[in-house]
Amino acid sequence: MKNTFAKRIIPCLDIKDGRVVKGVNFVGLKDAGDPVAVAKRYNDEGADEITFLDITASVEKRETIVDILEKVAQEVFIPLTVGGGIRTLDDIYRLLKVGCDKISINSHAIRNPNFIDDAATRFGSSTMVVAIDAKKTGDSWHVFINGGRIDTGLDALAWAKEAESRGAGEILLTSMDCDGVKNGYDLALTATMSQMLGIPVIASGGAGKKEHIRDAFLNHADAALAASIFHFQEIEILDLKRYLQEEGIAVRL
To answer: DSSP letters of 69-92?
Structure first.
């Protein structure tokens, strides 16, 4: 059974060439600042966690930028999740060693599902987040990999269930259709997956205003991840949390 703890607000830092970037539907990237400075600001503003995604590591077949992460970890005192280009248990070990708290895996987990089992066994399920980039395809949602470039043909709901059974501690669910558009999360996908699983689901892709984040929580998401609304200071995290509390949603203030 899932717990009923406070809902979490998680800013996401997409990293390309050592800078924070943000796009729409995974393309058209704009610079949003220095990752260390941005992460420190979120730490100070009351974020519950920070997710750090090296968005071109997998497609460029290189390792995550460990040196940047080490600097971020020195400035941030809330849980830090990191993803992008993670292919071995040693990759995970290096990231945990420099101060990361959780590891997000996506493309490599699809290509080698046993990696989830191996990583969860060695480092614990609470450390392992499986990220799913999903796009509506016909009557279902397909899983995409390599920064949304490749349709695997896998059903997103079935893959989430398998990831849970293999030891994933959380699912980071991004709707590619909604990403960056700011019209709200894919609530049907979020609700369906959240109610189907016994592990937390983080809603991602589409937040444009406070009501969208409220709606994700009302549709059973355990956490809400957003990027541009926080990067460009359209919404202040503390203001958001006060609004959610007024709406009857439990958050940490």
So the answer is: HHHHHHH--S-EEEESS--SHHHH
pLDDT in tens, 16-31: 888 888 655 555 567 7
Q: 102-105 and 201-204 as β-strands: parallel, antiparallel, unpaired?
A: unpaired
State if pTM tops 0.85: yes
CATH class of the domain at 12-246? alpha beta
DSSP state of 139: T
Residue 77 tokens, joined? 């005192």
Tell me the domain boundaries of the chain: 12-246
Residue 14 is a catalytic residue: yes
Q: Is 31 a catalytic residue?
A: no
pLDDT in tens, 102-112: 999 998 999 99
CA distances from 35 to 1, 42, 60, 113, 236 (A): 35, 11, 20, 30, 18
In the numeric block, which tokens belong to residue 53?
Answer: 């995604």
Q: Which of 14, 91, 215, 222 is catalytic?
A: 14
| Candidates 48, 54, 91, 133; catalytic one | 133
Q: Is 17 left (phi over 0), alpha (psi -120 to 50) or beta?
A: left
